[in-house]
Amino acid sequence: MVEVGLGGDMTAAYEAKEWIEAKKEGRKMTTSCCPAFISMIRHQFPKIYENNKSSTVSPMVAVSRYLKVMNPDCITVFVGPCVAKKGETLNEFIADRPDYAITFDEMLDLFESKNIEIEAVNEDYQESSTWGKKFAGLEVIEEMGEDVSDIKLLPCAGGAECRKALMLLNSGRLPEDFVEGMMCPGGCVGGPSRLGAEKEITKARAGLLAKADRRKILENLENYPMDKFSMYRDGHMD
Description:
The chain is 44% helix and 8% strand. By secondary structure, it is mainly alpha-helical. It has one domain. It has a 3-stranded parallel sheet with strand order 1-5-4, covered by helices on one side. Strand 2, helix 5 (84-88) and strand 3 form a beta-alpha-beta unit. The chain is globular.
């Protein structure tokens, strides 16, 4: 089992490179980690899909590619609150995708069918930075030595917010530089297969984040073979 926050570090670092270049060119960009958000862009805003979408893969795809480099015969399965991840594993526009994606509900149903009981454990083992767990982008741009004081980021959560941001970008009236789009209200924590109320999950997540160490994103990625696999949707290498 691998913490998908590690993929958050990977995606944030490579997306940051695209953001830095786009900022220099005066071009606005969207994130590409939420498959439902990308589906909205592809079907409803094709111009943005071609010109403004990040080409970096999602954390799920990043971790899967890393695992297959380390063990080419392994089967990768993403487990989370997101239903759209199922479609991402079948998305022909993404090379080298994970093999499967299941929801928390489905995982628990599988455990129950096999009479497997889950017990809590206390451990401090971690694979991602705090920023990877949060999936935050501006911190790694600053870590790369870039000035972030004039960068404007627009976080969008829920279909209405995402659509509004994309319409502004499409019409050339978006004041922000980058759009961070997530189709579920409240972000991924509000996914349809979440196990509990959003407030309860947010509180529990905040408690876990408070216990995380202070490692940096680029510092953390030095421990991984980032030159051995592609971080781009079409699978090309740098």
